[in-house]
Amino acid sequence: MTSFAFVALGLILIRYFFELWLDGVNAAHVRKHADEVPEAFREIMDEATYQKSVQYTLAKARFGTVSDSYSTAVLCALLFSGLLASLFAQVVERTGQSAWGLAIALWAVILLMSLLSLPFSWWSQFRLEEQFGFNNSTQRTWWSDQVKGVALSFAIGVPLLALILWLVGASGDYWWLWAWGVVVVFQLLMSVLAPIFILPLFNKFTPLPEGSLKDRLKNLAERTGFINAGIQVMDGSKRSKHSNAFFTGLGKGRRIALFDTLVEQMSEQELEAVLAHEIGHYKLRHVPKMITWSFVTTLAGFWGLSLLEGQSWFTGAFDFGSEAGIAPAFLLFGLLAGTVTFWLSPLSSLWSRKFEYEADAFAADAVNTSEPMITALRKLNRENLSNLTPHPWYSGFHYDHPALLERESALKDWNPGDRAA
Fold first, then answer.
1. pLDDT of 323 strictly over 80
2. Which of 132, 202, 266, 353 lies at a CB distance of 3.0 to 4.6 Å from 270, suitable for a disulfide?
3. Burial environment of residue 77 by CB neighbours within 10 A (0 to 12, 13 to 18, 19 or more)
4. Sequence-separated contacts (24+) of 349-353 with Cβ below 8 Å
5. CA 66 distance to own-chain centroid
6. Over the stretch 179-197, which tens digit does the pLDDT of each residue have?
């Protein structure tokens, strides 16, 4: 192994053992509070539901430890044994070294690697989620989703990869700027097209029926100046009993999507508060800020990749030759980047949490009281069996939303006009 290979292995293992430690301290923290419902949560959960949430959290932690151990072992085995380089070379022999051929080879290798983790995805859905009453998916639906996902990744991912690889050879030293521009345009285009052509392949979206709830939500949108193309209900219960709400599209084409499970679980006033929270993200310009940041990090990634292009110490450390050009660097960069960016996740989480507090305050202002948002958050946490007592270190790395008690405390301190400008 080369010096860089040892460094890469060390970074992978340091992250793995740190995450193992995080899982351990979080599980210990949960067990510490497991004997009875903490006083702060006695209005939220009864004893039986709280114990179920504890067991769900611990079961996910155990599953996560096994899954992370497996994926880390597979990654190390493929990278440092030369198997990944050998596999890629064999695929390239069949696809050729044109931009299209290399793009197909990259897609095929990534697909094969993802298939290695497929049993864990299946177990999570049909054993772990089933055990705690969340799974509503059938085998047919689940496998259909996997096939559709693979087909879409080929139809969309391969042309995009081919274009980027072609730009490497066609646009000189600044190919990374052109590639970044292509990705930016692609992401914006997908924001418009995905709700129309892709999401309906997986879920059914129906207009919210006429009635008091629709009138209330339409009045909220008008009151807050939120222009949208309509309110839809998504059949999330087809796969899971978990609940959520989100927006799709950009500009005037934005659509409000509510999980049918959310509509069933909450009162009209609570649904209004949840929607006001989501509107708050748009009105306070959180979404463009996050999109802009993603564009900045993507640019930094392409620039970093341009520095690694053709560096034999990088690709050679994992037994890749130079005959396939930049494609191995793309593959290795994608596999290793998360090992570095993981350590920045607390910073992004802090930023995201700030936005959540601001959107909560916006929601309270929009409905003139914080109470519906508080009760909505309580229901979301109770129905989803959320971890109510996460360890601070664990939540710092893994939670992009504040814990329930933190959000509720901020909402109880809310006063009219507190929202961010």
1. no
2. 266
3. exposed
4. 349/395, 349/396, 349/397, 349/398, 349/399, 349/400, 352/290, 352/400, 352/401, 353/399, 353/400, 353/401, 353/402
5. 20
6. 999 999 999 999 888 888 9
**What's the pLDDT score for residue 421?**
40
Where are any strands of DSSP class E within 197-236? 205-207, 231-234
Sign of CA dihedral 295, 301, 306, 310: negative
> Tokens 């509070």 label which residue?
33
Model pLDDT, residue 277: 94
Q: How far is CA 138 from CA 120, 135, 319, in A?
A: 16, 9, 42
CB 19 within 8 Å of CB 396:
no
Cα separation, 167 vs 205, whole angstroms: 38
The number of angstroms, rounded, from the C-alpha of 334 to the middle of its chain's C-alpha atoms is: 16
H or E segment and range at residue 259? strand 255-259
Q: Hey, what are 229's tokens?
A: 């193309």
Burial 389-420 (b: 16+ CB within 10 A, else e): bbbeebbbbbbebbbbbebbebbeebeeebbe
Could you give the residue numbers annotated as active site? 278, 360
Determine contact, residues 205/257, Cβ cutoff 8 Å: yes
Q: Give the bridge partners for 257, in sequence order.
A: 232, 246
Residue with tokens 């597979």: 74
329, pLDDT greater than 80: yes
The amino acid at residue 20 is L
Between CA 247 and CA 254, with CA 251 as vertex, the angle to 5 degrees is 30
- Residue 274, both tokens: 């949840």
pTM beyond 0.70: yes
What is the spatial distance between Cα 341 and Cα 293, in angstroms, rounded to a whole number?
Answer: 14
Give the model confidence (pLDDT) of 219-231 as tens digits.
998 898 887 767 8
Contacts 24+ apart (CB under 8 A), 203-212: 203/234, 203/235, 203/236, 203/238, 204/234, 204/235, 204/238, 205/232, 205/233, 205/234, 205/255, 205/257, 206/232, 206/233, 206/235, 207/231, 207/232, 207/233, 208/232, 208/233, 208/258, 212/268
